[in-house]
Amino acid sequence: MSLQVGNVRIGAGELAARLAQGFAGELTDVAVQEPDTVVARLAREKLKDVAARLHDLEETPVDSLTLISSVDYVTHYECVYHLYSYAANLYVELHVRVPRGDPTVETVSDVWPGADWHEREAWDMMGIVFKGHPDPRRILLKDDWIGHPLRKDYVDDVRNHPYV
C-alpha cells in the first residue's frame, strides 16, 4: 500500500526504512506487518522522546494514537502503542517492555491527547503507572477497588464485593 505525499511516494516498507534509519539505536526490530503497519520495539526510557519526534515528523507525522494495549507476560508487562499517520495512511505499532517489579512508563498524553483514557485503563486493569499523567484515576473500576484484574497473578479480594 502506498500514498502520494507531496512528491514522495511512500509505502510501509519505505516508512519502516525511514524509521529504522532516523531512530537508529532507539527503535529496534523494525519490520513491516503486511499490508500497512510498521512494528518496532523501544526501551521505555526512550518512549517520551521518540513519541514526540514521531508526532512531529516532517513528511509523515505519526499524528494519531488509536489504542494503548497492555499485556501480562508473567515475567514482564508490555505496552503496545497503536499509532496512525494520516499523511502516509499507515499504522505504526510500538512495543515497550515494562518490568514487573517497576511497572512505570512516561505518559504520552501530552503528545497524543487520545492516550489519556487508554493510559487510565492500563493503570486500572493492569497496574501500569504512567508518570506525569494529568488525571491518574481509575476509569472502569470503583476508586477503592483492590488490585488490577487483568494481571495473571490477580486474586480477587472479598473487600471488592461488600454485598456478597
Q: Within the largest sheet, what's the order of strands? A: 3-4-7-6-5
User: How many domains is the backbone divided into?
Assistant: 1
Top-tier CATH class:
Alpha Beta
Q: Total number of helical segments? A: 3
Query: What is the beta-strand fraction?
Result: 25-35%
Class by helix and strand content?
alpha/beta
The best one-word shape is: elongated
- Strand elements, count: 9
Rg, alpha carbons: 18 Å
Residue-averaged pLDDT, rounded? Answer: 94
Largest sheet: 5 strands, mixed
Description of the molecule:
- This protein has 164 residues and is of the alpha/beta class.
- The chain has one domain: Beta Polymerase, domain 2.
- The chain has 3 helices and 9 strands.
- The strands form 3 sheets. A 5-stranded mixed sheet has the order 3-4-7-6-5. The chain has a two-stranded antiparallel ribbon with strand order 1-2. The protein has a two-stranded parallel sheet with strand order 8-9.
- β3 and β4 form a beta hairpin.
- It is elongated and about 60 Å long.
- 30% of the residues are buried.
- The N terminus is likely disordered.
